[in-house]
Amino acid sequence: MPVDNSSLQRRDEPHQQVVKQAINWLLRLRNNATNPRLRQQCDVWRAEHFEHELAWQRVQSLQAELSSNLRGVPGAQVAFNTLENSAQGLGRRQALKLLSGVLLMGSAAWLAKDTASWQQWTADFATATGERRGFQLPDGTRLELNTASAVDLDYTAQQRLIRLTRGEIIVTCGGIDEASSFDRPLRVQSRHGVYEGVGARFILRQDDDCTRLNVTSGMVAIHSPRAADGEPIRVQAGQSYLIDHNQAKLVPPLEMDAGAWVDGLIVTRNMRLGDFLNEVARYRHGYLTCSADIADLRLSGVFRLENTDKLLAILPQTLPVQLRYRTRWWVSLERHV
Question: Which among 266, 258, 295 has a CA at the least distance from the CA of 283?
């Protein structure tokens, strides 16, 4: 059984749920600025634990930076004021999504630096770079999040929907009774489609241009986009599909074990070095690359993810390459001479 790796979170980072509470307090105070009792209650919450105060300061800092960046964008302050007024009548979840949407008006450099952090704070479940976590949902479904991933849940009396907003997940469908499953099928939505699991375990990885679906057991129906005849596409165990906004197509298996990350591993089978480094780069900060003359070298093996520097140090033992650290965060591989 995969281990919940929440302990990997840095000690100087507040827990995701605490940050959500801080955002909730911020929205309530902004919507009730003349309520001194609410301000006092917030102060009590901040004083309860050092992590509460840390989360409050982080949220305040992010909100201040957002306002500052908007002031430099023509017309953005008007939009921000309109956003604040509109948020008065919204619930917490809606207000958070609306507020995060205004980030689109910020500078490109600021967006690249902070959008992922904001998304991680406001999602129902999320992981940081290099982190992997597992969650048990109320219906018995098991959800595993890979590095830098985020999902939102929309469970109501009418539906069970998991929205993959970023990254990669493994879904193991829960064991609810057949009648409930028929009325409320478990569906997962990515940027490129909607997928319904039937007694299934499957992996979804969302990239910018497509989503990859790998089914390891059971069956998954792709509802959008549909097949040419308008029927859902039924994906059986062992099959992989690439889905974009226009089509879903059957593709060959990867040159790696698509779900090995849940056990903290990359398992490769005659994989290109360039592709392998792209995978490793997902689990570390900074820039990782190789020279063009070695990108097509092939490697097979089992590599542990808990320390990517140690992982990279193994490569010169099996391939004619050498590591070059320009900085701690800028690493390249070159041909050994």
Answer: 266
Q: Provide the 8-state DSSP code for 203.
A: E
Number of domains comprising the chain: 3
Helix (H, G, I), strand (E, B) or coil at 162: strand
Write out the residue range of the structural domain in which residue 206 sits. 133-251
Cis peptide before 225 (omega within 30 of 0): yes
Domain finish residue from 94, 122, 150: 122
Q: Give a yes or no: residue 128 inside a domain.
A: no
Q: Which two tokens stand for residue 20?
A: 């959500």
The whole-model pTM stands at 0.66
What does the pLDDT look like over 140-199, one tens digit per residue? 999 999 999 999 999 888 899 999 999 999 999 986 644 455 568 999 999 999 999 989
Same domain for 243 and 266? no
Tens digit of each residue's pLDDT (9 = 90 or more) over 279-298: 999 999 889 999 999 999 99
Which residue bears the tokens 């992590």?
51
Question: Among 122, 149, 182, where does a domain finish?
Answer: 122
